[in-house]
Specification:
The chain has 393 residues and is α/β, with parallel strands linked by helices. It contains eleven helices and 14 strands. The longest helix has 34 residues, at 28-61.
Length: 393
């Protein structure tokens, strides 16, 4: 039997000569190279797709690091002692202006924490900015031998943070209302620059119902202040919250989101939120980490929720910032060091004008509409209270 062979393929030239040749396969080396190139290109495509999805996740998540789940390094944090970071004779600084302000403005700080965080996050707060509160108490669920703690029989969980906060607000009303002008709630991963806060508060009247912090315009008609960024209420606002709210069952005592529940309670009793931007429209209370505000990105919700969308970069924040959220214990000590134990030679803080934190509270009694200023107006003013589509208002 005759074997089948491939038919020759010929080419005829102009001279009429016909030359035939046989079609052959490419060499094995060439086929291998083509295969490797295809594999390489597919690998690059898959890697690029993975990186794109990952970066998209980071953008929407809004953080490079998960600050909520950073493990507590017990040994390194507990190695710090308060006396290691106190001012001493080796620090050449004049604090007379801040000291005078501190004597005039009295702030009670209560910090929501957990029993597990008392020796790590709570300790870092107490060692750093907490020592500049006029009084500080850490609120947990279990009794502790630490003098700055108080416990309530309420489970340490986000679902019961409202209960912990409302119980503490009621406790302060019953025991400390007349001793302090302002009452601040913060988390154990919030860093507060107390001198800047007291400067802001010095422009306000604690005898008026004032509620300030980082304003979110969602969920409630007048919005609410972010719990993570910390919020402050005046002596009068606390009195109204308890007497007109909790005591008359007009406020939830537990449940849902703590900062929303507190905001709703204050709304129910007629306490309105105030904006806290400086004269240049820059934020002072910050609901996320200092890293995300300075380097970026900021989470998407901070572009949608706040009365004024967050910015990242050099104009992210006021020159006199007040709070930053998601601050790890180690970052607490680092921030404390650079704020209070270092300086740049030849650079001094210029005189701060009286309108750096512009007070609009004085207009409230005369014409409430005069303080409902549009977004972007400088200074402290009532947040514009108008219906919000997201809460059905």
């Amino acid at each position: 039997m005759t074997s089948l062979k491939a038919l020759p393929v010929g080419r005829t030239y102009a001279t009429g000569t016909h030359v035939s040749y046989r079609r052959t396969r490419p060499p094995v080396a060439i086929m291998r190279t083509i295969h490797l190139r295809r594999t390489y290109m597919w690998g690059l495509f898959v890697l690029g797709l993975f990186l794109y999805v990952h970066l998209l996740y980071i953008k929407n998540k809004g953080m490079w690091f998960d600050y909520e789940n950073v493990s507590n390094d017990m040994s390194s944090i507990q190695s710090y002692r308060p006396e290691d970071i106190e001012d001493d004779d080796t620090i050449l600084v004049n604090t007379s202006v801040a000291d005078d302000l501190s004597k005039r403005v009295k702030v009670f700080c209560f910090i929501a924490t957990t029993t597990a965080n008392l020796l790590t996050k709570a300790k870092a707060v107490n060692d750093t900015w907490g020592k500049r509160c006029d009084k500080i108490l850490f609120v947990s669920s279990s009794p502790s031998e630490l003098s700055m703690t108080i416990s309530f029989d309420i489970e340490d969980s986000r679902s019961h943070l409202t209960g912990k906060t409302m119980t503490m607000l009621n406790y302060m009303y019953n025991n400390y209302l007349n001793d302090y002008q302002w009452f601040m709630k913060a988390d154990d991963d919030t860093f507060v620059i107390m001198e800047n806060l007291k400067l802001l508060l010095s422009k306000c009247d604690h005898e008026k119902p004032i509620y300030l912090g980082h304003h979110f315009k969602v969920h409630l008609k007048q919005g609410y202040m972010s719990g993570g960024a910390g919020y402050v209420m005046s002596q009068t606002a606390l009195r109204m919250l308890v007497e007109d709210g909790l005591n008359r069952d007009r406020c939830d005592r537990d449940g849902n989101d703590e900062d929303v529940d507190v905001g709703r309670c204050l709304e129910n009793v007629g306490v309105q939120p105030y904006k806290t931007t400086d004269k240049f429209g820059r934020e002072t209370f910050h609901a996320f980490s200092i890293l995300n505000y300075i380097i970026g990105p900021v989470p998407v919700y901070l572009l949608q929720y706040p009365h004024k969308p967050a910015r990242s970069g050099k104009n992210c924040c006021s020159q006199l910032p007040i709070t930053f959220h998601y601050t790890t214990p180690k970052m607490m000590y680092i921030t404390e060091y650079f704020l209070y134990r270092t300086a740049v030679y030849g650079r001094q803080l210029a005189a701060i004008d009286d309108d750096f934190f512009k007070e609009e509270v004085s207009h409230l009694d005369k014409d409430p509409s005069s303080v409902f200023l549009p977004q972007g107006i400088d200074g402290i003013s009532l947040v514009e209270s108008k219906p919000n589509k997201q809460n059905g208002g």
